[in-house]
Amino acid sequence: MLSDIEIARSAKLKKIDLIANELDIPEEYYNLYGKNVAKVSHKYLKELNFKNDGNLVMVTAITPTPAGEGKTTTSIALSMALNKIHKRSIVTLREPSLGPVMGIKGGAAGGGYSQVLPMEDINLHFTGDIHAISSAHNLVSAVLDDYIKYNKCDIDSTEVSWPRTMDMNDRALREIIVALGGKKNGYPRQDGFIITAASEIMAILCLTENLEDLKKKLSNIVVARNKKREPVTVKDLEITGALSVLLKDAINPNLVQTIENTPAFVHGGPFANIAHGTNSILATKLALKLSDFVVTETGFGSDLGGEKFYDFVSPTFGLKPSATVLVATIRALKYHGGQDKKELNTPNLESLEKGLPNLQVHVENLKKYNIPVVVSLNKFYSDTDDEINMVKNYCDKLGVEVSVNEGFEKGSEGAIDLAEKVVKASEQQSELKSIYNFEDPLEVKIDKLAKNIYRAAKVEYSSQALSTMKFLKKYGYENLPVIVAKTQSSISDDPKKLGFPKDYTFTIRDFELSAGAGFIVALAGDILRMPGLSKIPNAVNMDIDKEGNISGLS
Predict the structure, then answer these.
(1) CB 3.0–4.6 Å: which of 89, 171, 289, 421 could bond 532 by disulfide?
(2) Residue 164 belongs to what domain range?
(3) Cut 0.90: pTM above it
(4) Using CA atoms, how far apart are residues 93 and 83, in angstroms rounded to an integer?
(5) Binding residue positions for ATP
């Protein structure tokens, strides 16, 4: 089989204005970024208020493993297959971060015959959205140190909660000292960098509905405390307007297409283990007005991106999901059953059987939201009929539909059965039931999540978490939704607990306030917001020849 980049180059793309025209987007509402990319104005959403929304399908996965599950590939294949069976569909995805692209993961535009294109552009600088977010974020950092130097806003330099950012994995920048070199450079203090996907401004961009809303959310960002220990906000810094200017184009969703010319919005890129993990709400809402079925991918497993989509994003914006697709692979299930990752291509029914409870916990958790669930079993060449039948029989016992998906190898043709089952599931009458209410006390929200989704017996708080909780309650932030930042490698707070851990103690070590984005981040475990590169980063595989052809990007 050809490599991803070879398949991408052999695809016959339509000019993006033809894709826009097929969606009935007037020319005045989009700007071309070359032949194959366009930005669609957020203002067009107002013109579509008269239209009913299409069906919303959320794609999530079992607990991720080094073997990979293929959520993006599944999302793209499903959307293409829905079009194949004459259901007008758009897929909405997050933008890849350069950190994982240059690090260990590689690109994030799908794979095989289920890709969004142009793959090279999407995986690299694309339309500059992430760079705009980095610039806006770092403007806040620069102004903070300027105000500390000139003693404005009475900022306590030991209570600055706003780090710097860059869109690259670099562990050396996690903890640094800034403003060395004498008084002319300011006052030295401890600082650090986070990756841009972890910036609150990234979350805000993805939770914004228009420029006015953007400015309101930006102004509410808490960046420090003053010497009276009161919150200092972006509004206090008087730079809301400047930040909004930097983001004026980034707010508009990016329109591209799949390998089979299905429309795709690729916009925003928050991670689900440290933020809410979903593409922009503007992209999703636009797609819902322009199609019969919107397929949207959420980050990591259903205990992360899936939970946050159903407990935070959907209730906040009035979204009404129609179906859930839970992605699983036999290789990943065998890994959860204890099989060595070097042996995952070797048939092993015993390891598979031991790993199936991880599929069980995700199915059970998703059913609590009252939205129909379809399992997508992504097929690999090494999967045997006996292994596939074991998973099918297990799904029957769980009372959930399952489809063997071959979208990677066959594109839309490999996902027809999945598409038909998703359509059937969407025809069922269902209404989303969230795990907690926004009005619940902070401890109650976390307790409900810990026991219902993470399967813990109880929750414990560190002394630092209890102290921060007092601050949140004192200044009226307690009723904000909760985003739990935790490992993606387990449904628990311990990455070593594979499979179906339960009846353990879930620990909250601290809280971070994202007042602009509109949520509280509960930190469980040691979550890094600035990843490091691997011993052999993906960057060493990349090159470009004299004709401009890129290699090593996948």
Answers:
(1) 171
(2) 129-244
(3) yes
(4) 17
(5) 65-72
